[in-house]
Amino acid sequence: MTRTNRDPGDDVPTPQEIYERIDTTVGQVLIGNDDAIEQLTIAVLTGSHLLLEGVPGVAKTTMANLFARASGLDYRRIQMTPDVLPADIVGTHVYREHTGEFELRRGPIFTNLIVADEINRATPKTQSALLEAMAENHVTIEGTTLELPDPFMVIATQNPIEMDGVFELPEAQRDRFQFKLTVDLPDREVEAELLDRFDSEPDLGPSAIDQVVDPAVLINARQRIYAVFVAEPVKQYILDLVSRTRIHPDVAHGASPRASLTFLHGAKARAAINGRNYVIPDDVKKLARSVLVHRLVLNTEADISDVRPADVVADVIESVDVPDVQPRTDSASVS
Q1: Of 175, 203, 225, at which residue does a domain stop?
Q2: 3-state SS string over the chain?
Q3: Where is the AAA+ ATPase domain positioned along the sequence (predicted)?
Q4: Which domain-ending residue is among 225, 240, 263?
Q5: Which pTM does this prediction carry?
Q6: Range of 325's domain?
């Protein structure tokens, strides 16, 4: 990874330094999750949201908690169940008998990072309570619009093997998640290292790590990301990937223009956390699966044939030519 060049007197960390601090700190507890930490960092730096999918026990919620603690974000978790109501998330007005007045009780969504654990166990009405927050960074409670903190980020988790008592996320809500990441089971070597680590430190967890970034630093880093250069061939590559999903024979509804913007912003952030002030095609390609996989609606024939969205995305990536873009020579780092 290219080291960042900047004025030694400048004590404001660069996007690259932010990522390296968070990755190193989270790695004190978890291992083998580098891609997830990278994309969590990209999401928070671009003001976006993330969907984590994996079987129980792969540390989805722990990862979110560790990320929040390392980055100094206020963190809350909601365990989604069918009986959770929208008011349990956004809040409501409560009558106070001793004053004879209604008092606003804010829900847990008024935080920097909220984890909606097992989001697909909540009813569609409750799931939609998150939609306004994810889209507009505010919520409306009984006609009153209230701004959410900045940064604000939703991390939702879901279990792919749970079939009973779950509600599939509607397409509009899936589209609001910048990335969908699959947290896989670790390989034997990684799991063996986890055994050794927790054998020597049984209480190892989020409380064992320190805050290494201030939320104000995350907000400041956005301006550096906005300034990252994207060459025209890279933009055309983004458009080629997105448009190919719309004409794929297994797809009923392809990715929307929001996916194109997600590619743009995500690729800029990935370039910045790798110490570059320009996007390369590999930034786009590396993000393609997590940007597209949850946005595709397959047609009936594909469903019958057990075609998976991940298969379609892999085919799209393979079928689109990667442009030959030469690195910029004026500067190689974000300062």
Answers
A1: 225
A2: CCCCCCCCCCCCCCHHHHHHHHHHHHCCCCCCCHHHHHHHHHHHHCCCCEEEECCCCCCHHHHHHHHHHHHCCCEEEEECCCCCCHHHHHEEEEEECCCCEEEEEECCCCCCEEEEECHHHCCHHHHCHHHHHHHHCEEEECCEEEECCCCCEEEEEECCCCCCCCCCCCHHHHCCCCEEEECCCCCHHHHHHHHHHHHHCCCCCHHHCCCCCCHHHHHHHHHHHHCCECCHHHHHHHHHHHHHHHHCCCEEECCCHHHHHHHHHHHHHHHHHCCCCECCHHHHHHHHHHHHCCCCEECHHHHHCCCCHHHHHHHHHHHCCCCCCCCCCCCCCCC
A3: 46-187
A4: 225
A5: 0.89
A6: 227-335
